[in-house]
Amino acid sequence: MNAVLPALLLGFSIAAPAGATDSAESHDGLAWLQKMASASRQLNYSGTFVYHSSRQSETSRIVHFVNSAGGEFEKLETLDGPLREVIRTNDQVTCYLPSSRTVIVEKRMPRRFPALIPTQLTGVPDSYAVRAQEVDRVAGNECQVIVLEPKDNLRYGHYFCAEIHSGLPLRARTYNEKHELLESFAFTHLVIGGSFKRELVKSRYASKAKDWKVDRTAIPVAETAGETGWVMMGQLPGFKKMTELKRQIAGHTTPVAHIVFSDGLAAVSVFIEPLPGTKVAPQLSHQGAVNIYTGPVSDHMVTALGEAPAATVMQIAKSLEFKGAAAAARQ
C-alpha cells in the first residue's frame, strides 16, 4: 500500500475520534496488564535482574516454576551485598539470612518483581491513563512498553516493558509526581520456559539453619476477617477498602486491626493497635517507592505503608476514626 495514503486519510473526517482512540489505547493497555499479571505467576522462568533506587542497587537471581497441579515454587538469591535467599512455595515464604543466622518465616508474599501487577485490576482505569506505546528491547528480548499515568498526585506513575510473546514483565519503573525515578527493576538475563526441576528451587541453607534463630512474628497467631470499627473519613479518590481483619500477633496482648486500601494497583496497608505506655512521635520514612508513616490517632498507634506518595499514606492514616463495628458496617 502507498505509504502516503494512510497519512492523507488521517486529515479527513473518517479518522477515529480522539475519545475512541483513547478508549482503544486504554483497553489495549489493560489487556497487556492482565497478560503481565498472568505471565509472572503462571510461566516457568529463570534469570538475573537488577533493582535500583536512590539508596540501593542490588542484583538478584530468580527461578520460578509452576507444576501441573498449579503450585508455585520460587527461589530468589541476592548476588551482591548481604547474602539473602528467599524460598517460596505458594504462600509459604522462608527467608534465610546467613550473616545473622536468622530464618524469617512469612505466610504471605508481598508483590515482588516480576509479579508486580495484581490479578484484579478493578478501578485502574479510573485512576490511571493506561497506554501501550512503543516496542523496546530488554535482555535481548523484544518487549511492549505499557505506561500508567496517574490522573492526580495521589499515586505514582509506572512504566513496564512486557516480553512481546508471553507478557512477562522484563522492566519496571516507578516515578513520583515530579516524574523523578524512584526505583526500577530490569532483567539482564532471562530464560522463559523449561521443565520443573525441584532441585533448582531448594534452599542452600535449610540443612545448615537447624540451629539458627527462627522469626515467625510475621505470621499471626490467629486472624479474623470482619469489621474492625475503624473508618477512613473523607475518602480519597480511587482508594477503596479491599480487606479488613483483626490479627492476633505473638507478643501483643490485644488484636491488631489490619486494613488494606487500594486503587487497583497501589495498595496501602494500615495497622492499628493501642498506644504503648510512652508517647509516640509521628515518623515518616521510605524505602524505594514505599512510604511508611507511624503516628498516634486518638489513643491508638497507626502504621501505614504502601507504594504511594507520602502525602497519600499520611492522609489515609490521619483520616481514620473509630466508629465501632456496627457504625463501620453501615458505611
In short:
The protein is of the alpha+beta class.
Plain-language structure description:
With 331 residues, this protein is an alpha+beta fold. The chain has two domains: 15-214, outer membrane lipoprotein receptor (LolB), chain A, CATH 2.50.20; 222-330, Phosphorylase Kinase, domain 1 (2-Layer Sandwich), CATH 3.30.200.100. Helix content is 15%, strand content 44%. The chain is built from five helices and 21 strands. It has a twelve-stranded mixed beta sheet. Strands 13-15-16-17-20-19-18 form a seven-stranded antiparallel beta sheet, with helices on one face. Mean pLDDT is 88; it is low at 1-21.
How does the helix and strand content classify structurally?
alpha+beta
Fraction of residues in H or I helices? 10-25%
Give the terminus-to-terminus CA distance. 60 Å
Going by CATH, the architecture of the largest domain would be Clam
How many domains comprise the coordinates? 2
Shape: globular
- Spell out the helices and strands N to C: HHEEEEEEHEEEEEEEEEEEEEEHEH
Are there runs of 5+ residues with pLDDT below 50, and where?
A: 1-21
CATH superfamily of the largest domain: Lipoprotein localisation LolA/LolB/LppX
Tell me the fraction of residues in β-strands, as a range.
35-45%
The level-1 CATH class of the largest domain: Mainly Beta
**CATH topology-level fold name of the largest domain:** outer membrane lipoprotein receptor (LolB), chain A
Radius of gyration, in angstroms, nearest whole number: 22 Å
Strand segment count: 21
Strand order of the largest sheet: 7-8-9-10-11-1-2-3-4-5-6-12
Tell me about the largest β-sheet. Answer: 12 strands, mixed
Average residue-wise pLDDT: 88
User: Helical stretch count?
Assistant: 5
